[in-house]
Amino acid sequence: MISKDFLLEETRQGYTISHEMKEVWAVTIDIAQHLVDVCQRHGLQCWMDSGTLLGAVRDGGFIPWDDDIDFVMLRKDYDRLVKIAADEFQPPYFFQTTYSDEDYYCGHAQLRRTDTSAINRTQLNKRHCQGIFVDIFVLDGFIENPVLRFLHRTTTMLIRKAIHGQLRHPEENTSVGKKIGSLVSKAIGCMVGYRRLFRWYEAMFRMIDADTHERISLLSFRYRSHRHVRHRSSYKSMEFIPFEGEMFPAPNNTDDALRCNYGADYITPRQAPNDHGEMYFDANTPYTESIELLRRQPELFDERIALLYHTK
């Protein structure tokens, strides 16, 4: 249960977290707890990851300049979660995948709350849900053979580019290459829709079952050979550790899980941007209302960003 004191403005490691950002944190904690509860009821394993895990290990909660919560699941458990999501996540919770929303693609799932707002500046013309979210990334087997890995990576990259090209709006085509790619992808889309392409994309990763590989990685999110790669043995069980007064699951080997992202010196704080950039967060307003407001008054986006992230 989040206390009123938790929502007060606070300074950690010289960084001030505003009341408004604390409200965002409170919503993400609520979403994360709901996710963990569902996973436990169904015997599914999930673990904190990336900055969330780092903050839990180092500070017992959020990294001061972070604004979301990340979890990972092995592909088999993730697939089971996708199948039960419609029954388990009722409004205001919304389990978002490429299959759940029009005009939306993502290699992993996001559990959102529809009564809140988390809007990227480039997403104002999109139709998909844009509530505050928790990321649920997928761990797949990592192919050690460099030739096979190159072929697998190239194939999945081409499928992914075709999906992006189909969904890209005209104003997002900022280069000649993107314009041509988008036209080619849309032509492909006349024969094969982006959701069918995404089924092929996921099938490519199911081919490399994590249980048959020594190392695993977030390949469907970002296909790299030098980051995000960790040992399968580090994810045998869930070890619950404190996170902002709650108990959330961590891998049985947190050191391996953190070294793969941050190196051996992960315990030293370093302020860095997150992957999604600064967002228009509002913990008290449904995203549909916020989008309409921002379309009428776009200047409010920068005002809100300044309040949340202390920019000028």
Low-confidence parts: none
Quaternary state reads: single chain
Helix content: 40-55%
Count structural domains. Answer: 2
The shape is globular
User: What's the helix count?
Assistant: 9
Distance between the termini: 34 Å
Beta-strand residue fraction: 15-25%
Radius of gyration, taken over Cα atoms and rounded to an integer in Å: 20 Å
Q: Which structural category do the helix and sheet elements fall into? A: alpha+beta
Could you describe the 3D structure shown?
There is one protein chain. The chain is of the alpha+beta class. The chain has 2 domains: 14-141 and 213-309, no CATH class; 143-207, no CATH class. 40% of the residues lie in helices and 18% in strands. The chain has 9 helices and 13 strands. It has helices at residues 19-41, 50-59, 75-88, 146-167, 176-189, 194-206, 254-262, 287-296, 299-309; strands at 10-12, 15-17, 47-48, 69-74, 93-96, 109-113, 117-119, 132-141, 215-217, 230-231, 238-243, 246-251, 280-282. The strands form 4 sheets. Strands 3, 4, 5, 6, 8, 9 and 10 form a 7-stranded mixed β-sheet that branches. Strands 1-2 form a two-stranded antiparallel ribbon. Strands 7-13 form a two-stranded antiparallel ribbon. α4 packs across α5 and α4 runs antiparallel to α6. The longest helix is centred in the first third of the chain and has 23 residues, at 19-41. The protein is globular.
